[in-house]
Hints:
This protein is globular. It is α/β, with parallel strands linked by helices. The strands form two sheets. It has a six-stranded mixed sheet with strand order 2-1-3-5-6-4. The protein has a six-stranded parallel sheet with strand order 9-8-7-10-11-12, sandwiched between helices. The protein has two domains: 8-107 and 249-273, Leucine Dehydrogenase, chain A, domain 1 (Rossmann fold, 3-Layer(aba) Sandwich), CATH 3.40.50.10860; 110-243, 3-Layer(aba) Sandwich (Rossmann fold). The chain has helices spanning 22-33, 49-56, 84-89, 109-119, 136-147, 160-173, 230-237, 245-259, 267-273, and strands spanning 8-14, 37-43, 62-67, 81-82, 94-97, 103-106, 128-132, 152-156, 178-181, 191-194, 218-221, 241-243.
Amino acid sequence: MIIRGTTRLIAHIGHPTHAFKAPMIYNPYFEHAGIDAVVVPMGCESAPYSEFLRAVFRLTNILGALITMPHKVTTLELLDEATPAVRIAGACNAVRKSRDGRLQGDLFDGEGFVRGIRRKGFKVDGARALVVGAGGVGAAIAASLAAAGAESLTLFDVRAAAATLLAQRLRHHYPQLRAAIGTNDPAGHDLVVNATPLGMKEDDALPLDVTRVAPETFVGEVVMKEEMTPFLKQAAARGCSFQVGTDMLFEQIPAYLEFFGLPSTTPDKLRALAQISYS
């Protein structure tokens, strides 16, 4: 793609940058769609990050910033405005500047997950969901499920305090939500989500007892190492509909594009154009 004097920038800020995948997804789409914008990796360590983020938004051709590790949590204290998803998860992965100069932050991991399961026909409104894992991605998914109208959320994490604090934040922002903690038993849930790293290694245990998952339950995964993780294979064998980990990634990018005021597209188009391979 050609970078011109008119090209608008999206900073992809984190450290280290060698594993960044966003440029290889966004930029082929921008070139294909004739959008005069580019995602640029910007390596920044923790110490200078606060000053650097403010400096980036002094650029006159900046559209926004994609924020990744290790800065997702630190970004929260630098924002002037934050969505409930950011407040609940305690992390931010997208920043833009409003017309009056205020830094606005959002978090799209959970939005991508919810968009994906909706496209596959799952009705979130009124659903009973189990989210196993109350870390960053689990909190983001829980926040988006609550925003989408889930009736109840059961939260489980081996760090019990993490699940407890997440439940408290969810109840604060969504008082009507029933949020329970303490069990990873999938029985009685319409949706079951593995939001843990279990499945990244061949000898990992399963995140829950799959024999307790009903065939009509929808199952979601966040692990992207392989499309069909052991957890998904066993759930599919029971007849469950499911969503693979990479769907969450590609489904959230249209939300980012909308956030930055750019023409959006479909996850399928992004997959077809992306210059990366997931396995």
